[in-house]
Amino acid sequence: MSWYRRAKLGITSFHNLTNSTAQLYGKTIIPTCKPPTTSFQRYYNVDSAIAVGSWIVVVASGIMVASGIGTLYAMFCYRGLRIVNVPFTNRKRLVMPTMMHKRIGDDALEGCMIKYKGKLLDEKDPHSMRAKLILKYIIQGLERQVKCNPNSNASGYYYDGFNWNILVVDNFIMHAHCIPGGTIFICVGTLQALTDGEVAACIAHEVGHIVARHTVEFQHPNLNRCKREFEADYIGLLLMASAGYNPRIVVEFWKNMILSYPDFSKGDHEHPSYEERANSLAQAHVMEQALTIYKESWSEYFVNLVFKHKA
């Protein structure tokens, strides 16, 4: 799942590790987060109602064709399918069982390792170190959200069992994608072209896809695939804010992308346009929620810093 469509870039100077991420290294930020607002959830639940209602029709049709309850039992018991909510948006959908999810992730990882053989940077390369550091902060942001909302559906099934890792591909295009299980691939061109905050937005978006388990979700014709990109954008926005990155960066990034790459900005059947993505994240109720999390994360950081200094 691409965070954005590929765009060829020239080589720019590399941001060294004395930037904003290094200043946060080793610090623990545990904000008192507020539960997500419901307005964004309602946006997705419009499709949830359609999706669940349609699945009921599909299941009912299957029962008629297969002569009864056997099909329903096979789907939900034997095959392990279940209806679950997406964390943070609460959209209902039908997902594959955990075992199948792991198998898909293992196969995808093996395929990517073959595809990128000889093209992956060493883990000690400065680009790799920078990407891993930013991923570390994003995962800490996810952990904070789970701690702040222990009864939310962001915990448990959606948080456990991931092996988080990021690998840098020696390619000078701007591109990133993820696979089930927690591995993210990001190209050198992305790291060279973007600031730490923009890279954090990119990585947080991919983490959003993984946490939402989009790859093991049954693809329903009534749910526009672009909605999953909007969903990952929204989850990523909250996670990067929880990690201490200013969420306003993302909106400005998309606006700059529109000016810099107008030919790539129109979107396709799987990806919304850059303008749609900027407008979606700039909505008052969305940005206010992210800014609240962002401010609380920094407040807690300074409080912890003062107490640590006094100790």
TrEMBL record:
Binds 1 zinc ion per subunit. It holds the Pfam family Peptidase_M48. Residues 160-217, 227-282 form the Peptidase M48 domain. The chain crosses the membrane at residues 49-76. GO terms for cellular component: membrane. It comes from Coptis chinensis. Belongs to the peptidase M48 family. Its cofactor is Zn(2+). Keywords: Hydrolase, Membrane, Metal-binding, Metalloprotease, Protease, Transmembrane, Transmembrane helix, Zinc. This is Peptidase M48 domain-containing protein. InterPro entries: Mito/Outer_Membr_Metalloprot, Peptidase_M48. One of its GO terms (biological process) is proteolysis involved in protein catabolic process. GO terms for molecular function: metal ion binding; metalloendopeptidase activity. Coiled coil: none annotated.
